[in-house]
């Protein structure tokens, strides 16, 4: 076990030391990315990414969510929501256009509102405020400073604050919206550089 730990530490050290003295590329373009897996949870996420300095980038990720009761439950009429994730992204290699391995971390916030269904007068609406933090490792591939494809994985933590009533039997129909606890992150982004 000790041998595997030393190998992982050596790999991480090597990644961070690669081209440490070289001057990083200045990317004067903004990367606008679409995150398609958010469609699964009735959302749309568009990421805006800009180089801050050297190998450091700021990533701002607004989201919107909406669906109607007919899809999942009769206890609410409709759901609307939004969110904002803010990440700091760091490329260990100065030549990140050709070696796009990166580390990223940041904070998250989401808000969801479920309007009550008039057919269930005992069930009111529900509001969810969810905060969290993420740590991500990924690889971003650039094609001629026009297209960006980003594959990532990582871990996160969420804490939901819920007010209002929802299901009369106490069951939870929407763990994807009001989850509190740890998360495994896995996804990809498709982007263009403008």
What features would you describe in this structure?
The chain has 194 residues and is mainly beta. It has one domain. 10% of the residues lie in helices and 56% in strands. It has helices spanning 2-17, 175-178; strands spanning 31-34, 43-53, 56-68, 76-90, 101-116, 126-143, 147-164, 181-193. An eight-stranded antiparallel β-barrel has the order 1-2-3-4-5-6-7-8. A hairpin with a 7-residue loop joins strand 3 and strand 4 (76-90). The mean pLDDT is 83.
Topology readout:
Layout: H1 2-17, E1 31-34, E2 43-53, E3 56-68, E4 76-90, E5 101-116, E6 126-143, E7 147-164, H2 175-178, E8 181-193
Antiparallel strand pairs: 1-2, 1-8, 2-3, 3-4, 4-5, 5-6, 6-7, 7-8
Task: Give the tags.
elongated, 10% helix, mainly beta, 194 residues, 56% strand, 8-stranded antiparallel beta barrel
Please provide the count of β strands.
8
- Tell me the structural class: mainly beta
- The sequence of SSEs as H and E is HEEEEEEEHE
Instruction: Give me the number of helical elements.
Output: 2
Helicity level: 10-25%
Proportion of residues in extended strands: over 45%
- Let me know the largest β-sheet: 8 strands, antiparallel, barrel
Distance between the termini: 46 Å
Shape, per Cα inertia axes: elongated
What is the number of domains? 1
Uncertain regions spanning at least 5 consecutive residues: none
Radius of gyration: 20 Å
Which sequence of strands runs across the widest sheet?
Answer: 1-2-3-4-5-6-7-8
Mean pLDDT value = 83
